[in-house]
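Anyone have tokens for Malate dehydrogenase? Sequence:
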Amino acid sequence: MILSAEVHSAEPIRVLVTGAAGQIAYSLLYSIAKGDVFGKDQPLVLLLLDITPMLPVLEGVVMELQDCALPLLREVIPTDKVDVAFKDLDAAILVGSMPRREGMERKDLLKANVAIFKSQGEALDKYAKKTVKVLVVGNPANTNCLIAAKSAPSIPKENFSCLTRLDHNRACFQVALRCGISANSVKNMIIWGNHSSTQYPDIHHCKVNVQGKDVTAFDAVKDDAWLKGEFISTVQQRGAAVIKARKLSSAMSAAKAICDHMRDIWTGTTEGEFFSMGVYSTGNPYGVPEDLIYSFPVSIKDKTWKIVDGLAINDFSRAKMDATAAELVEERDTAVSFLGV
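Reply: yep, here.
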């Protein structure tokens, strides 16, 4: 259904959100549709994919998007069919995945998600533009992203990334809270590795603006024991803490992080600043095993990310970077073994 008059001259881009009837998407779709992600002058067509039983719920989401009367939103297409959802995409945000149920082995969770992300990778390969930018959010996000990328051989591996911006934002806020400053005064935080409890939030290259002057996180916080202990575990366990409190996983904050991640891909990062993003590890300068989707510090220009090179890594950091890499290698090997099944 056409939703607005042709008030913008730019060609609409086609943006897919999967798991579109879920709670993350409910927090996400308004921000995308009103121009917070792809630009205030960029019209768009939203494609909303979910499983067949969720289609009635999805109709309600469509009604609400219509009722927002947003000028950039040209069309909303709810569907349960991949050939419709993935056609000619400019951007794909893959939120939907099989959640872990009580008593479920991690291996079973991986197997279910390999099936989902293999089919979505194949659909990207077959129907989407070769320039499509793909962000995987559904957990286990790094390995799901790798499976999707492997299943879409005609799309460059560099076009795939997974979300660790939520962890990045969590880490920035913890430092800001500790220093009594605003979150945007904390720059160049790094999340290394897996979007799991083995991730490593690294403050060694972080700049904190205190009273107009950039200082290191160590100088700003003045509590090395906290930075090397409780700070790391708080960020690693934050998702579980939210679930314990809300009885639901992070949605509002996940949606905000998705917006930050995709906006940075679309519009680029500021000179001298970098952010965390799960990207393809092959050829990386930090000795991380090849053929993983691993979170690195990246800068972005012309919709192309580049791993920030030349950052000194001490022994403390190296051990934590290696531990999260080992988990990802194990996850990848298990997941790849299911690909042929």
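The CA atoms of residues 30 and 65 lie 7 Å apart.
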